[in-house]
Design goal:
This protein is of the alpha+beta class. The protein has a domain of about 150 residues: 60s Ribosomal Protein L30, Chain: A. About 35% of the residues lie in helices and about 10% in strands. It is elongated. The protein starts with 14 loop residues before the first helix and ends with a strand.
Length: about 325
């Protein structure tokens, strides 16, 4: 091999110097990373600071900016009463009607006569005397009767025993009226005497089918008579539904509680539709808890006659 000559002034780079320079370059990236993290931290701090706005300081800054940007304008001149506005328009004179030939006058004489002559007052109608003040004129040749003073008559008073207003019917009147209207002999309705009230017992077989709450057409006239008697009265009306002890199981009425409530509600709704005040009505479903007769005998056998009596709807009228 031929040895190469080295140029004068050139420096040789050793392997150790190259390795040292490489290690120095690798140690610079943590500094850049730290700068970037610091900038990100400052950025997020700035965002957090901006997100919380001081309303008082914001309003003060807004007011100062508005005052600085809005210039003062000269106040408008006030209009005087002497100089009318230019835009004011005078109304055109109304056309005068052509006067009749008999009333033709000059403008000067017309204005002077109008200003000098006072307006004519309308003639007042003569007051006619009241019928009580009219005195019959005597015929010629007859003697004139002496005047007699007629005293005003007091207004007629209503009799004391007459009732007025919504309380014109007492409970006794309602009981008598229902006894006259309803067919008690048929057995569909029974009036039960009470000390302070009127009780109407509607037999269930006459108004409803078994396990049904629909009112039969034959019972509608009786309910109309009852509603016509109770309409307009201020008394409390309670409608109670009662059943027997026979159990019922259906998708519409799972038990006798639902059946008794449905029957009482159907009667109450019929009364409301025919004039009875709804605020005076109460509905109760009592199932078989209050029988009027025992449903079974001592041996536990059912009594059909008593069960038919227990299937009923009671309308109780009492003072509110």
């Amino acid at each position: 091999m031929v040895p190469t000559r080295r140029k004068p002034g050139a420096s040789l780079v050793s392997l150790s110097d190259l390795r040292k320079q490489r290690h120095d370059d690798e140690d610079l990236w943590p500094i850049s990373l730290a700068d970037m993290m610091t900038l990100l931290l400052c950025f997020f701090l700035l965002i957090v600071a901006v997100s919380h706005v001081d309303l008082n300081r914001y309003e003060r800054v807004a007011d100062s900016m508005q005052k600085a940007m809005v210039t003062d304008r000269p106040a408008p001149r006030q209009k005087t009463a002497e100089t009318p506005p230019v835009t004011a328009k005078t109304a055109p004179p109304k056309p005068e009607k052509s006067p009749e030939p008999s009333t033709v006058r000059s403008k000067v004489s017309h204005t002077t006569l109008k200003s000098e002559t006072p307006p004519l007052e309308p003639a007042k109608p003569k007051e006619q005397p009241a019928p009580s003040q009219v005195v019959a004129q005597p015929k010629p040749g007859e003697a004139q009767p002496a005047p007699t003073a007629t005293a005003p008559q007091p207004p007629a008073k209503a009799p004391e025993n007459e009732r007025t207003g919504p309380t014109r019917k007492s409970l006794d009147d309602i009981r008598k009226e229902l006894a006259c209207k309803l067919d008690i002999a048929s057995g569909a309705v029974e009036i039960v005497p009470r000390e302070n009230g009127v009780e109407l017992s509607l037999r269930g077989a006459a108004f409803f089918d078994l396990a049904s709450a629909d009112i039969k057409p034959a019972g509608l006239p009786l309910l109309r008579d009852i509603a016509a008697t109770l309409a307009g009265t201020p008394y409390k009306v309670t409608v109670e539904g009662h059943t027997d002890n026979l159990p019922i199981e259906s998708w519409l009425y799972p038990s006798n509680w639902e059946l008794s409530s449905a029957r009482a509600s159907r009667v109450a709704r019929f009364l409301i539709d025919h004039g009875v005040a709804r605020e005076h009505l109460r509905v109760e479903g009592l199932a078989d808890t209050m029988p009027v007769a025992p449903n079974t005998d001592e041996a536990g056998r059912s009594i059909p006659e008593n069960q038919a009596k227990n299937r009923r709807v009671v309308i109780l009228v009492s003072p509110s």
